[in-house]
Amino acid sequence: MIRIIAKDLRINPLRTGLTALSMFIGIIALIAGVLVGTLGRDYLESINARLSGKTPTYSAIVDAASLADPQATAALQQRLASFGPGVASAQYHLNDLAIWALSGDGDDASGIRHITVIVTDAARTGVMPAPIITGTWLTEAAEPATLETVVNENARQYVHDGTITLARTGNPQQVPARVNGVIADGADEPVIYVNAATLQRYWPQAWEPDGLTVLVHLSDGTDGQQTKNALNDLLFDTGIGSVSTWNRTDNADEYEQVIGFLQFGVIITAVLLLSVSAIGMINIGLAGIEQRSRELLIRRALGATRTSIAIQVIGSSVLLSLIIALATVLFSAVLVWAIPWILPVDSPLEPPAYPYTAAMVAVLASVATSLIGSLAPAIKAIRLQPALALR
Question: Do 13 and 111 belong to one domain?
Answer without folding.
Answer: no
